[in-house]
Amino acid sequence: MKNIYHRDIIEILLECGREGLRIKNIARRIYNKHADFFVTDIDYSEIRDSIGYYLWEQSRHSESPFLRTSYGTYAMKADFAIQLDLFLDNAIRYEAHKEQAKPQPNPHHIQLELF
User: Fold this and answer.
1) ∠ CA 81-82-87, rounded to 5°
2) Element at 67 (helix H, strand E)
3) What is the CATH architecture assignment of 6-100?
4) For residue 27, what are the contacts with CB-CB under 8 A and spacing of at least 6?
5) Which of 49, 61, 94, 112 has the maximal Cβ count within 10 Å?
6) CB 74 within 8 A of CB 55
7) Those residues with Cβ within 8 angstroms of residue 14's Cβ, 6 or more apart along the chain or in another chain
8) How confident is the model at residue 76 (pLDDT cuts 50, 70, 90)?
9) Domain limits, the chain
10) Whole-angstrom Cα distance, residue 112 to residue 14?
11) How confident is the model at residue 107 (pLDDT cuts 50, 70, 90)?
């Protein structure tokens, strides 16, 4: 099962830490992130219901990154947060290494292009 707000949920739960956050607060943050003056077709109750069902369903599986801490409150599993941090650190290092490995053009070298 996939939810269109999956990345937003992970981002919000990583910010709040091990204590977790209630579904209504997660839904409020996602609603505020996606709704603005020009976008009015987003319904808060639909977001809340979608997120609530998604987190409830996901927290029942052992391989899920979500953990139910109390009634209506969910958090990220600690091992998933550590894996995500390691992945992001390695991705940043890889991008920095890739940028350094690019050959830098010599500003004093003039090359004539015929075509």
Assistant:
1) 95
2) strand 66-70
3) Orthogonal Bundle (1.10)
4) 44, 47, 48, 51, 52
5) 49
6) yes
7) 76, 81, 84
8) confident
9) 6-100
10) 53
11) low
